[in-house]
Amino acid sequence: MTVIDEKVGFYLRHWEQIEQWAALREPATEALDAALRTACTHISDTIDATTRVTFKDHDDEPYPGCLLDRPGWQVDGVGIALALKWHYAELFDREGDTWPYVGVHLGGPAVKRRSLSRRLRDDLRPHATDLRWDRSDNEWPWWRWIEPSDTSVDPEQLAADATAALLDGWKTLAEPIQTILLSGASEPAT
Prior knowledge:
190 residues; alpha+beta; six-stranded antiparallel beta sheet
């Protein structure tokens, strides 16, 4: 007689129901994506006139979202924006980009992003700490996940939390970024 792991046994006894539940992932992803896109469209109602709001749809790219920037927020072909993004194909995927995220986003060639990313990491550290933006890489000098407050996911609440985090980031970081750019962003911090 073969000894079967308890979890495997559970699956074998309930496989039909488990597969039915798994089929709900796509409609759940669509609901969260729709809530995030709707929330993004309302950001322009709450932001000042000098701020550009750009929307990216998952029809255009795998990482839809909303970007906030100002005219001139570019250094050597690298655009700087505060962004709320998510990876549509990996929402609710335990192995991928499960949740939306907010942060300082750099667009442009990776080789050109390095020094600017390093400068923004250094100069924005105190502000990012206040925002609890604790992750960084070459494309995202400062960012964090926006996760649900418990295991139950309310798409509208998660979208509201995500846009609130983006707007808090904008209020906290727009002026410091502007100051960095005016002081010569490609130069090392002093």
